[in-house]
């Protein structure tokens, strides 16, 4: 089954968190999502969030007790095993080899040479997010790394992404796949973020109003790491949920 987005394109995001009950409170109140808990006992409470009835993101327990809460980006693929082989050949690390998630799809988890963790999703019955880029859904995925030159080599080998420098307020790279820029890359932001934060993939969710969403996140127990500010793409803010997971929101320009 072919997914809703082409191979090589981010198609899903989910959260690993130690407090699923509070996660099911925080994000629905923040984004207007509804939470749907998997009835499968082996899913350990994995929750699919829906917006206007369409799947937009997920959340589940951490893979290990000491795993920090984190939002993960999934990239669509036709062959998770092939991607895993490319990751190893390109100098990355495969944390979780390809495996089937019930009848929904086949996935793997890996990191690039700088330590940024990324997943791939080979769809079966579950294609990934059913809507992207509209308020309440995933809008953008961005690699934040101290070693962009190594990342350019790695991701071209793994996904065939071609780096293109983009007009921005600072250094910014777009990842081109065919006729589309499918993701981005930038150096660490610095202000508001821990100095020892490793390379990571940031997940952005679209909102109508970044300022109002940031204020609401604080009222719900979250934290603002980067206050709302304007960029060429729109007004964005970097936030942290009550368990400590980082995520961003953006109100698109125009």
Automatic annotation (TrEMBL):
Protein name, entry field: VOC domain-containing protein
PANTHER family tied to this protein: GB|AAF24581.1 (PTHR33993:SF14), GLYOXALASE-RELATED (PTHR33993)
Coiled coil regions in record: none
InterPro entries: Anthracycline_SecMetBiosynth, Glyas_Bleomycin-R_OHBP_Dase, Glyas_Fos-R_dOase_dom, VOC_core
Cross-referenced PROSITE patterns: VOC
Residue ranges occupied by any VOC domain in the UniProt entry: 9-123, 137-252
Gene3D superfamilies found in the cross-reference section: 2,3-Dihydroxybiphenyl 1,2-Dioxygenase, domain 1 (3.10.180.10)
